[in-house]
Write a structure and sequence with these properties.
single chain; 122 residues; 6 helices; signal
Length: 122
């Protein structure tokens, strides 16, 4: 009987989860906070963000065309994890007035500018 009840609760929770809409709010990590982190922490954060962007179509079960442009850029750039971090760090040093913005936007903007310089606009 306990197994039956546990199974029913699991099925109900999975059904409820499948119907839940995901809302991604603010990250809470600003550029100024990010710049205070160690190089290793900044690198891990940037690379996690980029991996998340590249995996987003699978999570959203959608075609996100701007990711094709990022892929084209990365094929031309061949960036290492360190280079991606350097791109973001340089963007923040060049645009200190923007460090109050959130890192997901700042990371995208830094990649947008780097890709545009390679002739691969996002």
């Amino acid at each position: 009987m306990r197994k039956l009840i546990a199974g029913a609760l699991l099925a109900a929770s999975v059904g409820a989860f499948a119907q839940t809409q995901v809302h991604i709010g603010i990250s809470g990590v600003t550029g100024s906070a990010f710049m205070q982190w160690s190089h290793r922490s900044r690198s891990d954060y940037v690379n996690g963000l980029v991996d998340g962007m590249l995996y987003a179509p699978a999570l959203a079960n959608a075609n996100l065309p701007f990711l094709d442009h990022i892929e084209d850029c990365f094929v031309a750039m061949h960036p290492t994890h360190g280079q991606l971090t350097s791109i973001v760090d340089q963007y923040l040093r060049t645009h200190p007035v923007l460090t109050g913005y959130e890192m997901h936007s700042l990371t995208y903007w830094s990649l947008r500018d780097a890709c545009a310089q390679l002739g691969k606009p996002l």
